[in-house]
Structures are given as C-alpha cells and as structure tokens.
Design brief:
heterodimer; A: mainly beta; five-stranded antiparallel beta sheet; B: mainly beta; globular
Amino acid sequence: GENVEQHPSTLSVQEGDSAVIKCTYSDSASNYFPWYKQELGKGPQLIIDIRSNVGEKKDQRIAVTLNKTAKHFSLHITETQPEDSAVYFCAATETGANNLFFGTGTRLTVIP
Amino acid sequence: DADVTQTPRNRITKTGKRIMLECSQTKGHDRMYWYRQDPGLGLRLIYYSFDVKDINKGEISDGYSVSRQAQAKFSLSLESAIPNQTALYFCATASGTGRSGANVLTFGAGSRLTVL
C-alpha cells in the first residue's frame, strides 16, 4: 500500500515569512495529492490539492508543487499570518480509490 | 449546523466498557469513514462504507465495529474499550460521484475518547 512521509513534524516561523512542508509517497499509481489544515478543536479541512497532470497549483498565499518523478510534493505558504497556525496533513491516493493515505502531520506555529 | 456532526465530543470511560460514537451528515454523501488520530501517527482509517449495505475494514479495524443505519448515519463501536484506544476519532464523508468527489473528505469536529 501507499506510504506517505511528511517533514518537518513541527515548524515555527515569524509572521510574514514563508513556510514549506514536504511530503514523499511510495506508490507510483498515486495521482491525487491533497493538503488538509486542522485548527485546534476542529476536524481537518481541505485547503488545496493537486493532480499528477500538473506540477504546481496556487491559491492566493498557498501553493503546492509536485515532482512525480521523485515522488514528492510540497506545500508553500507565503506571507504567513497567525491564523495560519495549525496542523497540516498531506495525503496521497489514486483517483477514486477507497482511501486517502495521510502523512503524520506538521504543526505550524506563526510567531507574531 | 455542521455538515458532519459527531457525538459525543468528549468521553471518558473505563477499560472493558462498551462505547458508541455517532456520526450524522447533511451533505447527502454516499461515502462515510471513521478515522483515528494519534500524535505523530496522522490519520488512520478504521472502517468505511459506500452505502447502507456496504461496510469495509480499513487498516486498523481490530477492536472496532461499525453500523451504517442510514445514508446519513454511521456509528463506531468499541465493544470492550482498552487504554490504547484512547485517541481522537473523526468521522468523514465524501461524494461517491465525480472524478474528484470520491477523494475530497469533509470531516466532523472529532470525538475525543479517553479509556482509563
């Protein structure tokens, strides 16, 4: 089955700086890579996703890049704000598959 | 009201007790899931269901059972709780149609279970 590794497990940045979270996956059949944000006391929420037919996708201050050859993908948050503080999970799967395989999470803290 | 509602939000119980966590959704989604979250381990799938008559084991189903009472309701049971089942449990739903719908999960707020 798929194995997703996520680094770092914790990340602290100053407000306004950029944050990067990296994930690797093992199954070459995976072609869908979402990122979820979990705020304190809430369930994870999808913030951005990318499919294997594109290498980069942006949505305002967040972007995701995918290197399918190397089997890794990354989340980039620019101009970080305190409200970006949360736990972020990457995931990988094959489109339509029964399950998402999640990474172990990154706790991002943005210091005002 | 939340799209995916979990009850209870917090529960403390003792070893050996039977516990049921309930999930209801107003999304109209066919697919429902139960995940377990532990620090440093991410989210792991316990059980999933694609319709009322369909129940499937996930990667960590031992010690758990589920019931899909209706399209909108999916409950998780621990028949005899043990301390290593102390965790945060999430219910999630997904649409069963569309190229991407099957993979886009909507999570509930979680049920924190402590087994003493």
